Amino acid sequence: MFEEEKVEDLKKEFQAIKDHVKNQDTEKVKIAFFGQPGAGKSSLINKIVGKKVVDTGVQTDVTQEAKIIEEEEMILVDLPGYGTSKFPENSYFGKFDPLQYDLFLCIFSGKFHTADTAFFCELKEKQRICFFVRTKEDEIWEDDKPKEELKNTISSDVAKQVGLDKVKVYFTSSKDKTGIKELKDAIWNELEPAKKDKFIRAVKAESMENLEQKKKACQSLITRYACLAATNALNPVPGVDVSVDLGIIMQLFSKLRSTFALNDSTLKEMSIVVPLANNIIKFATKEGILILLKNFATKMTVKEVAKYIPFIGQVVTIVVGYTIVKAAGESYLDDCYKLAKQIFEDEMEKI
Q: What is the pTM of this model?
């Protein structure tokens, strides 16, 4: 009777993790950008993500609807002008529901605008997090005045406009990437743990520390997907009496490659000079995944089953399937991380 209860407890635990994975996949990091046309919001979005996800050079006007950019598990939204004839203050929050976003970035490149002040005050009243970002840092200059003095003046002006004693202004330049890492680190610090992982996986790594953060975030992803693949058994693994869902594993491996910006063209280019890239390509297919799973199955099955001798049937197959998929996922992650690290080091040498 006791062993049956243990089996049921294990089944419930796996089901709870499975449900948690599904809920996690529906939750995305949501960041809203607001500010005047021409302030450089689109360029900044591209720099945060690390690739072109929105067109630049075309000014948005106050009549435009919200521009939504989805990248992996992150949603970036360029909100239209606040307090305009089309989007008046009294109906703005009802139409765009800004409170759904995790945090806000107020973007400006020249004089701080009164409409931005009004919107910030609304956010402050509702206790929302807002960063002030002065773009085009490379264009800040004035005869006979040091840049730091000019930055302090800008920060003081923003504080005065929004009615605060002091504010932190992030100075960025999409042209030379000034301040991008600092801004991304600040965003990451303000997010809740689960969304930290989603954010760091979605944005470009600006340092070795970021690559390590990506790897750590992927490890928790592997744990969840391994459980999901094992409890949704569809495809038998050759050489062992265990089935897993190959579609879920392919989805996991795709997320791992995307996290480290290892797209098809990058992998093809690197495969010529780095043998590791060939492994990443090889194990991206269902056939390759089955080979990888079989390799780990022959090494781990006996050992893992021995741990759970009292638990027969479905629980054993789930435990073994989970263990095999987790080991294969960690191996694939290690390859992706090593290749991304080499690419990053090569890029740093060219600077």
A: 0.85
